[in-house]
Amino acid sequence: MRALPPPPLLWLWLCLAAAGAAAGSCRDKKNCKVVFSQQDLRKRLTPLQYHVTQEKGTESAFEGEYTHHKAHGIYKCVVCGTPLFKSETKFDSNSGWPSFYDVISPDAIMFTDDFSYGMHRIETGCSQCGAHLGHIFDDGPRPTGKRYCINSASLSFKPVDKNSAGEGSGSTSPAQTDKTEL
């Protein structure tokens, strides 16, 4: 007796699950380099930060702390402190969320297919702890053409140290030292 192939949707789900597992993402927290208990996260994070980073939530457009933020420094993962974006790559996309055209390091962000809400998007997450950050789109400015659309609630900010050489150039900023330590 011949076995029937699985229904098309089940087949698609199995293929996507296998692709996600092969990518080595830490979304399931098993492959994460930094792991926190849910109890610890609920104590440390605000309810909105927890919802966004742990439940793949989204903050309301134009209401995030960093949407119109202009200070020079480094944007980090609010959960684990991994440096993610330099302020020099932030731009106003008029989308309602902080937008960046490049990451601080290619290894800082992980990408996952997101088929929620009946569409295909690419979710961005912290590669160290698996926190949900936002999504990436191909409508950003040069030189990358990318728009990392990131929830403010998933970020913390470290201003450039005014006492370091370079006064904001980023060439010797403490955040770059943090990057190499992770």
Query: What does the radius of gyration come to?
Result: 18 Å
Order of helices and strands: HHHEEEEEEEEEH
- Can you give the helix content as a percent range? 10-25%
Number of strands: 9
Largest sheet: 6 strands, antiparallel
**Order of the strands making up the biggest sheet:** 3-4-8-7-6-5
Q: Assembly state here?
A: single chain
Structural class: alpha+beta
In short:
This protein is α+β, with helices and mostly antiparallel strands. Helix content is 21%, strand content 22%. It is globular and about 40 Å long.
Q: Which features would summarize this protein structure in a list?
A:
three-stranded antiparallel β-sheet, alpha+beta, 182 residues, disordered C terminus, six-stranded antiparallel β-sheet
Account of the protein in words:
The protein is α+β, with helices and mostly antiparallel strands. It is built from four helices and nine strands, in the order H-H-H-E-E-E-E-E-E-E-E-E-H. The protein has helices spanning 8-22, 38-44, 47-55, 174-181, and strands at 73-77, 83-86, 90-91, 99-100, 109-114, 121-126, 132-137, 147-150, 155-159. The strands form two sheets. Strands 3-4-8-7-6-5 form a six-stranded antiparallel β-sheet. The radius of gyration is 18 Å and the shape is globular. It starts with 7 loop residues before the first helix and ends with a helix. The model is unreliable at 8-25 and 165-182 (pLDDT under 50).
